[in-house]
């Protein structure tokens, strides 16, 4: 199966969960993250602002704020095909951009250097046991990860993990995958 078919399968899978199933899985994967040494040792957490059909990142953002950690969220620059992360201190610093995504408003926030980020929560649709992922198709995270030296983790359901995915030379695997049933360290 090629990447576009995997992408379609992943999107369909994410939308297939009932609200109760989704909430239960989110509670387990969030708690595993919050109890981990990765979380406890990180001072700057990078995470997207999720859409309704994705695993919610709101608990991650709010737990980080509650614990005095810095939260940084990405803004996509489609013209340059890059991500820039901005310090997020309140939801009022977000703006709605294309496809209903919420991203930081550069006028209301400060950009953060890549080397300041301790823990990056990487989104995706389907993952394999080697840490490779099929994302939403823009390649933004692979370009960002190419010279990122911090820790990467993805929070997914067990159904989003498969044995092997097609990968190319520019694909960058994540280091940790947390599901409701296991923790994979690559």
Reconstruct the topology from this structure.
Elements: H1 3-16, H2 19-35, H3 37-41, E1 44-46, H4 58-66, E2 70-77, E3 82-88, E4 94-96, E5 102-104, E6 111-112, E7 119-121, E8 126-128, E9 133-134, H5 140-145, E10 151-155, E11 161-162, E12 176-178, E13 183-185
Parallel strand pairs: 1-2, 1-7, 7-10, 8-11, 10-12
Antiparallel strand pairs: 2-3, 3-6, 4-5, 8-9, 12-13
Overview of the molecule:
The protein has 186 residues and is an alpha/beta fold. Helices cover 27% and strands 25% of the residues. It has 5 helices and 13 strands. The chain has helices spanning 3-16, 19-35, 37-41, 58-66, 140-145, and strands at residues 44-46, 70-77, 82-88, 94-96, 102-104, 111-112, 119-121, 126-128, 133-134, 151-155, 161-162, 176-178, 183-185. The protein has an 8-stranded mixed β-sheet. A hairpin with a 4-residue loop joins strand 2 (70-77) and strand 3. The chain is globular.
Short synopsis of the structure:
The protein is an alpha/beta fold and 186 residues long. The chain contains 5 helices and 13 strands.
Stretches where pLDDT is under 50 for at least 5 consecutive residues are none
Approximate shape: globular
Number-wise, the strands total 13
Based on CA atoms alone, the radius of gyration comes out at 15 Å
Distance between the termini: 23 Å
As laid out across the biggest beta sheet, the strand order is 6-3-2-1-7-10-12-13
Characterize the biggest β-sheet: 8 strands, mixed
Structural class: alpha/beta
Strand content: 25-35%
User: Roughly what percent helix?
Assistant: 25-40%
Mean pLDDT: 93
| Oligomeric description of these chains | single chain
Order of helices and strands: HHHEHEEEEEEEEHEEEE
Q: How many helices? A: 5
